[in-house]
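Progress narrative, work stream C.
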Amino acid sequence: MINLRRSKNAVPINIPMTARLVEELGRLPRARDVDLVFSAPSGGPWSNSRIQRSFILAKTLAGITRPFRFHDMRLEVDLQRRLDSRGCATSWPELMRDLSQVQAVDLDLDGERYRLRTDLAGSAFETFAAAGVRPPAVVTHLGPAPPPPAPPTQTNLPM
C-alpha cells in the first residue's frame, strides 16, 4: 500500500499495490532522506519525460490500449473502493462495458424536445450510486423543440 500523507486537496490517499509491484519497487534505488515515491539513481526526482516514458511502457505491458492518463489511476482506485464498500464485485472492464451501454437520444414530439435514455445495464446503477451521482432520468423534458430547418431555396442555375 502506498500511503500519501500529502495530496493536492490535503486528503490522505492509500493506493493498493500487488505483491509483484511491491517487489519491483523494492528493487529501485531510493534515497531515504527525501519524501519521493520514486527517486532516480542519483537520489533526486525522475524527470517528467522519464515518468511519461515509464508510464507508457507500463500501459503497454498491462495491455491497456484505450486512452488512459496517469491521473486516471487515482480516479479508478477511488471508484473501485466505493464499489467495494457497497459490495459490488464488478471488474473494471465490466463496469466500463455497462456504462458504455447507457445511451441517450433527443426526440422532438408535438413541438417539444425530450431526451430519452436506455435502461441501466449490469452494474451501471451501482456505479452511479457509488460515485454519488444520480443517474439521468429515463425521460427528460428539454423545452420547446427548435423550429424545423427551412427548406432549401431553389436557385436558377445556368444550363
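Work stream C, second folded protein:
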Amino acid sequence: MNTSKTTAAPANIPSKKDLKREAKKRAKEAQAEQKRLAKEAKAAARKAERDAKKFGEKLEADAAKAGEIVVKNAETQSAQAEVRAEKARKALKLRERFARKKVAKTSDAKSEASKSDAKKAAAAQAAKKANAKTADAKTAAKKADAKKAKAKKAARANSSTSAPTKVTVTTAPSPSATSTATVPQASTAAKSAAASNAAAAAKPAATAKPAAATRPAATRTPRATATRAAASTSASPTVAQLRAQAKAAGVRGYSTMTKAQLVEALAGK
C-alpha cells in the first residue's frame, strides 16, 4: 500500500520574520550596550583625569611645602652659621686684646727691670766712689799721723840740750784751736828749727782734718733705705718706684699690689 509521506515543519523553528525581529532586537541591545560601555568609559576617563589632576595638585602642594621647609632649614642654618662666625670674631678680638695687654705688661716689666738695673749700677758706682774717698781719707790720715810722729821725735831730740819752755803750735786751720807743747830751751837756731818742724806738722794736720771727718759709709738697713727713698719721692711716686721701695723693704707680694696698697704697706713698715 503506497502511502505518501508528508514532512511537516517543526513547530519550534522560527520564521524569517521572527529571525529578522530577533536580529534587530539584538542589534539594538548591542548598540545600547555599546553606548552604555562608552558612557562608562567616558565617566572612568573623566574620573581618572580628575584623580590625576588632584594627585598632581597634591604633589605640587607637597613639593611646595618641602621646598618651604628646605628654605627655612637653609635660612636657620645660615643664621646659626652667622651667629657662630660672630662668636668666633668676638673670641678672636678678645684674644688679640689679651695678647696686646700681655705684650704691654711684658714691656713694662722689662722697662722696670732695666730701670732697677740702672739704679743698682748707679748705687754700685756711688758705693765705689765712697769707698775710694774713704780709702783716700785713711791714707791722708796715716800720712798726717806719720808727720806728727816725726815732728814729735824732732822736738824730743832738740829738748835733750836745753831747759823746757812753752811754745804754741797751731794744729788746726782756725786761729782759736791751739795746743801747747813743752820743748826744751835751746839756741836761736834750735828754736827756728823747732818752729819750722811744728809748722810742717801743723799743715798736714790741717789738710787731714776734713779727710778724718769723712767716715766710712755705714751699712743701711732695708727699712732705712725704703724710708729715705719714700721721703725723696713722696711728692708723686710712680708704681714702679713704690714697687722698688717695697722690694728693698722686704714686702711680700709687692709685684701684684696697687699703688694705694704699696703706699699702705710702706707706711706700715
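Helices lie at 16-158, 188-213, 222-232, 239-249, 259-268. No further action is required on this item.
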